[in-house]
Design a protein that fits this description.
The protein is of the alpha/beta class. The protein contains 13 helices and eight strands. Strands 3-2-1-4-5-6-7-8 form an eight-stranded mixed sheet, sandwiched between helices. The protein binds nicotinamide-adenine-dinucleotide (NAD).
Amino acid sequence: MSQIKNIAVIGTGVIGTGWIIRFLAHNKIVYAFDRDIKLKKNLVAEIKRSWPYVKKLFNKKNLNLKNFKYFTSIEDAVKHADFVQECVTENYTLKTKLMSIIGKYTKSNTIISSSSSGLLPTRIYSKCKNPERTIIGHPFNPVYLLPGIEIIPGKKTSKKFLNKAKKFYKSISMNTIVLKHELPGYLSDRLQEALWREGLHIINEGHANTKDLDRAIEDGPGLRWSLMGTFLTFHLAGGKLGMKHMLEQFGPALKFPWTKLKAPKLSKKLINRLIEGTKKQSKNKSIKKISNLRDRYLVDLLLMRKRYEKKLR
Ligand SMILES: NC(=O)c1ccc[n+]([C@@H]2O[C@H](COP(=O)([O-])OP(=O)(O)OC[C@H]3O[C@@H](n4cnc5c(N)ncnc54)[C@H](O)[C@@H]3O)[C@@H](O)[C@H]2O)c1
């Protein structure tokens, strides 16, 4: 659908490289810039290394490196772009300064997106000339394979550009989550950080090592999470009554507490939101029906995983 063809990628580290590969796989013309020109060699090597996987996933033909251009100035990289994906180091001062430069040299209808993992867009774009066409487009590593993307509007982002960005990301095989408004850490990294922080407490106190903690996720929750997240999983954990029974049984444990993270009070409002939210997610399907779907999926996933896990462990 999208008429967006020319993409500038600013910053060609881990995430910038991942974006370039995804864009090339979707027949875009990519204009790249990094302040460290030495990275170009590694970048091309990484595109070649990852291409067989990308090719298989997206059913592509041969890699066409003619669509990839590397520039030595930001101005040259962004001036013809329909879309800019910024991927420089996570830092407010750096990104704010860079966005004022990018805003100055882009065309009047170019969308500017930052790959930031948790910074607020209104602040990053506070010195950018055209804040109405700016967003955060937060991907997951490796960007060329994982479909997830969180889109976060700033206070001045226009609906028109937000929708255009959403359509664009969909056109390159991504599944978008558009946040209602900006919040630090967005959604996924807030969840990941909670888990991460708790893991650090456990390790710091000597209860387990990183390997055991990784296995605690890999062989249990992780296998389920690729199909359904925490809330729908817990809906099933409540048996026939779903989330309602789950909260009655395990709600009190939030007061122990098991973790170092402060839990919110289970107010009526919160309970209602959890029950109604999971009900909506389950689209009136019975617990049994969703359980069947989950189990079938897990069997398929385990069989498939066998081929890879011997190489990993
Ligand atoms: N690594 C991840 O898993 C991940 C996931 C999602 C989002 N992100 C976000 O992506 C962004 C980049 O992260 P990364 O992991 O690729 O970092 P990285 O350190 O691998 O790469 C950052 C690149 O930015 C370049 N750079 C710094 N200042 C620059 C400037 N003024 N002009 C041009 N280039 C400049 C550096 O030379 C470097 O190549 C960050 O905002 C980060 O939060 C990272």
